[in-house]
Design brief:
Helices cover 46% and strands 15% of the residues. It is of the alpha/beta class. It has one domain (6-240): NAD(P)-binding Rossmann-like Domain (Rossmann fold). Helix 2 links the parallel strand 2 and strand 3 (55-59). It is globular.
């Protein structure tokens, strides 16, 4: 059995998921980069660890419980343990409130909220038996702030993740497992780059610090929440939003 800690990050083929996975790898973890996009996921993992000793790319569709369970089993078969599970996989969507297609609503909630629940369920059951573990969920300012550029379905899913984080934290706390969330505002990366330039500029103007966030500013919080120093923190949401929502 390896003495190194093991982290699993869903949605790790690009963006924040990739940045978080890269951070854990840089901190000495063995890391499973997990995504539904196999080609980009493999590219992301191999860019950091061409030999595949410390990083592996795995497939999972977080909408399906059996797929999440199979992915978890692959990590255990390879490295014997899972210390940290990051539920980052998400689908961003932006539609006018009255024009959201019902099928689109269902799919956004399935990826973002149901997928996070499945991650908490599978990782949590194992970690509770082991009496140790860290679960980190990626929420968003969209779930806290009604003026988000994203659609109501995305906002609802991210608000739900915060509620799910608290209930999972309560369920697992006595077993030595912490569950926390990170709620970023707009962060530099593929999602921001896909926004219309005028909307992105207008959004950035609303951020008190005057700029978009950087992936490293999110990955640093994830690294802290996974550490021993954070063992007394559970059920919390860490805002990384440049002062857009102060509380």
């Amino acid at each position: 059995m390896s003495s190194r800690r093991v982290a699993v990050v869903t949605g790790a083929a690009q963006g924040l998921g990739q940045a978080i996975a890269d951070r854990f790898l840089g901190d000495g973890y063995r890391v499973a980069y997990v995504d539904i996009n196999d080609e980009d996921c493999l590219r992301a993992a191999q860019a950091q660890d061409p030999g595949g000793d410390m990083a592996v790319a795995l497939h999972a569709d977080v909408r399906a419980l059996d797929s999440v369970e199979a992915c978890f089993g692959e990590v255990l078969a390879r490295w014997d343990v899972v210390d940290v599970w990051v539920n980052n996989a998400a689908r961003t969507a932006s539609s006018p409130f009255l024009e959201i297609d019902p099928a689109d609503w269902d799919d956004v909630l399935a990826v973002n909220l149901r997928g996070t629940y499945f991650g908490c369920r599978v990782a949590g059951a194992y970690m509770c038996r082991r009496q140790s573990g860290r679960i980190i969920n990626l929420a968003s300012i969209a779930g806290q702030w009604g003026r988000s550029l994203t659609g109501a379905h995305y906002a609802a899913s991210k608000g739900g993740i915060q509620a799910l984080t608290r209930t999972a934290a309560s369920a697992f706390a006595s077993s030595g497992v912490t569950v926390n969330a990170i709620a970023p505002a707009a962060i530099e990366g593929p999602q921001a780059a896909a926004m219309p330039a005028d909307k992105l500029a207008a959004y950035a103007e609303q951020i008190p610090v005057g700029r978009l966030g950087r992936p490293v500013e999110v990955s640093a919080i994830a690294a802290f929440l996974a550490s021993e120093e954070a063992s007394f923190i559970t059920g919390a949401t860490y805002d990384v939003n440049g002062g857009m929502l102060m509380r």
